[in-house]
Predict the structure.
Amino acid sequence: MQFPAGINRRYAFVAGSFLLVLWLWVASDRPSSFPSNVPWATLKNPFTQTNDADVFDFPIVKSQAIKDVCARTEWNSSLIFTCDNNHGGVGHVRNSILNCVRFAMSAGASLVLPNIALREMEAHDIMEADEAEHNVMETGEETSLMEVDADMEAELAELGRKTRRRVKGKRHGPGRKGIDYMFDKEHFMASLLYSCPQMEVIPEFDQYASSRRRALLPESLVNNHPTSGLEHPEQWKEVFDAWVDEHIEKDASTTEPIVIDLEQSFLQYPTHSDGHPFAHSFGKLLKFRSDTRLLATETLHKLSQWYELELDLHAPVINNSFFGAHLRTEHEFPDDYGKKSKRHAVSAPYEHFPAQAQSYLQHASSSGFSLIYISSGNLSSVDAFVSDAKIFNIDVTHKYSLLKEEHRDHLEELTWDQRALVDFMVLEKAQEFVGVGHSAFSWNVAKKRQENVHESGAEKPVGTLADDGTWSDGFTTLYGTRKGYVESAGCMWE
């Protein structure tokens, strides 16, 4: 065989052998993605998967404890629950959806795939984004978003006719998005299929009026509402069945199902009432959407590179890393919770920025930290915090300063509540975390950190409440905490 001039046979043989080995490797046992350190692997997609691209991913839930509960349930094929009134920040929405699932299990009902009600600021943001896309123009305006707290007041059960008119062309109805607005829909459905195969999950369901369709706030069926949640959750099905008999028209000749539109139930179901194994696995039915997981992982990578920290990103809590803090100055528990809103009244002075900033910085300084990752939707508060931190010789960073180029572009394409998911995951990994007792976001992070530590094989941290209102479990500290907050936290899924 003749080779072109300048081509040595030995080099050609070596090259050919290399290509043959490469072909056999790819054909027989190729990896799901090329290693990120291969110099010729050009990764144009910022979310191309590598081994460390998504440290917040986890497999579908295969829980024997959940299976056992579902196996004991008497299922009713003509009973359907909808779950469309999940509103507020991630702390409210996550717990509300999980409560829907648990009440559906109790009743033996099919479950329509939950939707998420947009808050007014989110609806306005989406409307503006839709209009910008329709007009094929970029305004570059984001000031209105940057000045709003990501965890500010939760939308009430009625989203409001004004908001409903402003959101156009939504597949899931005015003012609502699908569960994939925050969470991984496929993971949710697959986990329920495996762990509770008796429950039918219905992808979509029409809105219509019927004498066999009623709205229901689950806890309204019982008279007593202690801060620790339902006193006898195992009796809820019996009370529910009696309510159905009284309020739903009986018609033996009809095949029309009974449809119950669940209103938002937040801190009502005692999470460990079905046993600890159930509680430890149930919260994992919800996994954050993949793009936010990848952004959170990228945020940690950039933090590690910029501050020259050797971080084990797969550790449940990363030692020798950074101090995490959540600034929260707006009261987030909506008034429509009635008596429950009183139990969550903000404990002054931690309602305001000065007390939070002072406590956080003193805590970080006394613990020897030189770096704080801050979470706050109010960038003016972040700027003030950065300025105060200089007195303590502490650096402060956040997702907006760490994410660059295409990752920053994607972050800015997300709505406020979606961006908060990135902070949630980064704060899970902090060596220490501080927040406030009146924040559902802070409590959700605290509970998730406890579960992560427990899953690593260590003993689950137990929090204690000091006389000065400081709650701490050794990994997390929440300031301005009242006894009622701690009791209610027992109704927050891990």
In short: Confidence is low (pLDDT under 50) at residues 1-15, 18-49, 127-174, 331-344. The two ends are 68 Å apart (CA to CA). The longest strand covers residues 258-262. The first helix runs from residue 9 to 29.
